[in-house]
Amino acid sequence: MMHELWTQISPWIVSAIGGLIGATLLLPTKLGEALFQFRTNKALEGFKAQQSHELERIKSSQSRELELLREQLNHLGDRGRRSNEMEFAATEAVWKAFVKAWLSTNTCTGQMMTIPRFSTMSADDLTSFMASSDLDEREKEMLLNATDREKEYAKVINWRTVSLAETDIYQARLVLREQRIFMPASITSEFASVIDKMSGAQVQRRLSLQHPHIPSYDFGKATTDWMRDCVSEFDRMATLANQRLFREERTKAEA
Fold first, then answer.
1. For a tag site, which of 1, 45, 86, 127 has the least CB within 10 Å?
2. Structural domain boundaries in the chain
3. In contact, 237 and 188? CB cutoff 8 Å
4. Quick one: pLDDT at residue 76?
């Protein structure tokens, strides 16, 4: 009886044991796969988070660099615009002083004056002339005390023009020295060269007044050279200044 019962249930027991053994053998494989998948997912999530953080860092760094570059470009643009404005103002100031000195030098070296006929003036006419003239008190006194008033008047006027030219030339040279840091060296040297020529003509004219008994050519030919070249020098400097001041407008027009 017991033998028959064992015979009937033994296959089930063996099958159950086999299933249990199989399940036990398969369990590490399934669990390993699950653990591997879990770890892989965590690693991918960490990698993605790290990559995202790195991309944000790169974007932030690039944004800072672009902002810095933008600031530098804006600074350079402002500096360039300011530099152009200062060069324009400097060239304009030098040009105005140059023109004033140019006119004074021309008056000094080659003026044509009308000399009043003092010999035919009455006392009232002389008094009226003195009152209406722009002569200072010292010059009026010299004229009144002179034995040859026509000659003295010419002398006074000549000295006034020489002194005015000296003042204006000095002022032009001073303005150039003050403004030269805002101007190109090439145009600065051109202005300086012409101002030196003015000064040479003025000095020679002054020497001829100081030493009227000495022929003017003995002092050199600065005055005659200036009288010959003054117009062409003026035109040349006007062209140089104009080209420098309005070079951008011409470039745009030509484009």
1. 1
2. 86-254
3. no
4. 52
